[in-house]
Design a protein that fits this description.
Number of strands: 20
Helix content: 25-40%
Radius of gyration: 46 Å
Strand content: 15-25%
Distance between the termini: 116 Å
Strand order of the largest sheet: 4-5-6-1-9
Shape: elongated
Number of helices: 16
């Protein structure tokens, strides 16, 4: 601000326009170019900088909005160094002489117009780094801030983008520093100087105003003395000078207004960013459907709002969804209809009646007091609406059907698309549940000592048994290590498909033979479970030839796992010792301990006596029984030899028998042929059910199995 001064020897002038007697010119406000500038001038220097710009850098790394937000959080309070560390070893501890300042007031700036998104911050330069400040100030004064710049040093993760050939930064783990360099690659630059060691604008204004006040007072004092000597030309010059002074004051006021607008704009940007971050975080914590979240997000996107407004919107959406859930209704069997969570469709009720008919447990807390069908004929008529079958049925009110008069024919009226296939599907679903329940209830003791593995297809399966190293040899000084090789062997097996077909004829439905139909899944479950148990125990009873072309059990070499005595305490101890003496390919004893005693039904009580008695059975000396709890008896009804017994190791310690199920389907599956124009359903009026079980297996290692006789 310039101030008109009274020149020595000038004649007195009239009162200057705009400056009244005893009047001081005051300019309220202060130019502040950063959000956190304190009232008093701080030491050091500050400059507004762009830390990094979004998009692809010169080094090929691409930074998106998420990466820039992470950098904005991490740059707050970070140290600024002169130049990057010269090597990775220096990154952990930089010299204190390299520290030139720190960053604060950092925030993310979204893209607008042609400007890309970026991260801005305020860089405080220490007074000790005057050499650096002189470079920054001179570069900015000359309009050449690009001569120096900023470069971030981070730890992060990236992935190659096949379409843009850029390395997209997916996560930033740590910000090491943001250093001042000469050749930045990610858009780090200096924007404008906020303040330095020169007097503040407020101090400058006070000095100027004081000078103007003194001049006005002097003019007022000298006016009576010089008034007679003033000339018209000098008065005109004084008036022009005062007009220039007023013009400068107005210019200063305009600059103050512009800077206030800039500060208000920055504040709005900060509040907008905070609001959008709050919106994203809060919506991410709710369990509302995606469509509702999108609606709320669009309503608050791009504007400033209070937290209470957002919470009210979320609460309103939840209340509306709860009301829709209570008011929703589904009618008809509705297999293909989308049912609101918490609602019960007609199809679920009918399925529950089928389940109850076959003796399955149903969730009555959800389905209510649903009664099962009392006959297969009633179930068929309820689903298909076949009047020829439904004649004679009257009381079906427990399933939602209306009680009609005795003389009126009973016909089903429904808006749902139901056919014989619907009946097949419903009955098949309940039968499949019954099949799985009975199958899983059947004893499967073989699973305790076998390994169960999922296999992908019916191709030959190979299980490699890798050899072992012997003792490590001593290596003398200055001599090479000796090379050793491993031998191996492989067990193979091919999975097979097992199953059967079961048909339900129209005559069975008309005859209302419910007991026959209810027995089908139970019979199939028992058949599947027993067949699988026979398959597993046949490896023990048949003494098959295994992977090394020898019988599984041999009294001597190569397996040494076949005894000659019937079941007794002494015979068990002999078998245990034989398993302890089993060796690996290198001839080293591996010290296996048997965990299970597999016996036929005829030896069950003898095995219990041997393994549960406190004293040795049959001993007159009351000796302690060393076999007490040593092994666990497993009774196998499928073993037909009444004298054979087996010791088997824990599958967690050694592989013995592997059973592989195709597709990992351990349970048998029940399938339905329900197309009315194909198969037996068309030619013989019969619904066909198919039970299928696919598996295979083999002996993987003989050392974990011992046969007593």
């Amino acid at each position: 601000m310039k101030v008109a001064k009274k020149r020595l020897g000038d004649p007195p002038v009239e009162q200057v326009e705009g400056i009244q007697e005893e009047q001081h010119i005051r300019i309220s406000g202060q130019i502040i170019e950063r959000l956190d500038q304190p009232a008093e001038q701080t030491d050091g220097h500050e400059v507004r900088v762009t830390v990094i710009q979004g998009g692809r850098s010169k080094n090929g790394f691409a930074y998106d909005e998420q990466a820039l937000h992470s950098i904005a959080r991490m740059i707050e309070g970070a140290q600024a160094y002169a130049d990057h560390a010269r090597g990775d070893n220096e990154q952990a501890a930089r010299s204190v002489r390299d520290v030139v300042g720190f960053y604060h007031a950092a925030h993310y700036v979204p893209a607008s117009g042609t400007a890309t998104e970026r991260v801005d911050a305020t860089l405080h330069i220490f007074t000790a780094a005057e050499w650096l400040w002189s470079i920054i100030k001179e570069a900015c004064d000359l309009g050449r801030p690009e001569l120096i710049g900023l470069s971030i040093d981070i730890f992060g993760q990236w992935q190659q983008n096949a379409s843009t050939q850029a390395r997209d930064v997916t996560e930033i783990v740590q910000l090491n520093s943001c250093d001042i360099v000469t050749r930045p690659s990610a858009g780090g630059t200096f924007r404008r100087i906020l303040h330095d060691e020169f007097p503040t604008l407020q101090q400058h204004e006070e000095t100027t105003i004081s000078a103007s006040s003194e001049r006005g007072t002097a003019m007022h004092t000298q006016r009576p003395q010089t008034q007679a000597h003033a000339t018209t030309a000098e008065a005109d010059a004084e008036q022009v000078e005062q007009q220039s002074l007023h013009g400068q004051i107005q210019e200063q006021q305009q600059q103050l207004a512009q800077q206030r607008d800039e500060i208000a704009h920055l504040l709005n940007e900060t509040r907008l960013q905070k609001a959008q971050l709050t919106l994203k975080s809060r919506l991410g914590d709710t369990d509302l459907p995606t469509a509702v979240l999108d609606t709320i997000s669009q309503r608050f996107k791009g504007r400033i709002f209070e937290d209470e407004e957002l919470e009210h919107e979320i609460a309103t959406a939840k209340a509306m969804l709860a009301q829709l859930t209570r008011d929703g209704q589904i009618r008809g069997n509705g297999y293909e209809k989308c049912v609101t969570e918490g609602m019960i469709s007609e199809a679920e009720k009918v399925q529950g009646a089928f389940d109850a008919m076959l003796g399955l447990d149903i969730d009555r807390t959800r389905l209510g007091n649903i009664h099962g069908f009392t006959s297969i004929r009633e179930a068929y008529a309820r689903v298909t609406g076949d009047s020829s079958v439904a004649n004679g049925l009257r009381d079906t009110s427990h399933l939602g059907m209306i009680r009609v008069a005795e003389s009126a024919p009973l016909e089903r009226i429904t808006e749902a698309d139901t056919t014989t296939a619907s009946f097949s599907y419903l009955l098949g679903t309940s039968m499949n549940k019954r099949l799985l329940k009975d199958y899983q209830a059947w004893p499967a003791e073989w699973q305790r000592f076998c390994t169960i593995a999922p296999i992908r297809d019916f191709k030959q399966q190979t299980r490699v048994r890798l050899g072992a190293f012997g003792s490590l040899p001593v290596v003398a000084e200055d001599t090479p290590y000796s090379a050793v090789t491993l031998t191996d062997s492989a067990s193979t097996y091919v999975p097979q498909k097992r199953g059967s077909l079961v048909t339900i004829s129209r005559e069975t439905i008309l005859n209302d033979d419910l007991q026959a139909i209810k027995q089908i899944p139970t019979k199939l479950a028992v058949s599947a479970a027993y067949t699988l148990a026979e398959f597993v125990y046949s490896f023990l009873s048949s003494n098959p030839t295994i992977y090394d072309s020898s019988a599984l059990f041999t009294t001597g070499a190569p397996h040494n796992n076949l005894g000659t005595s019937t079941l007794s305490t002494a015979a068990l101890q002999t078998g245990i010792t034989a398993m302890r003496e089993q060796t690996n390919y290198a001839g080293k004893r591996i010290g296996l301990r048997p965990r299970f005693l597999v016996i036929p039904s005829e030896l069950e009580w003898q095995s219990v006596t041997i393994t549960h008695s406190a004293g040795v059975p049959g001993s007159p000396n009351n000796d302690i029984n060393p076999m007490l709890g040593y092994v666990t008896p497993v009774v196998a009804p499928q073993l037909s030899n009444t004298t054979q017994w087996f010791l088997v190791g824990d599958p967690r310690e050694i592989d013995t028998i592997e059973v592989g199920f195709v597709g990992g389907q351990v349970n048998p599956a029940l399938f339905i042929q329900d197309q009315p124009l194909f198969g037996l359903n068309f030619t013989q009026d019969a619904i066909t059910f198919k039970c299928r079980h696919e598996y295979g297996g083999c002996v993987v290692d003989y050392r974990g199995i011992y046969r007593g006789i």
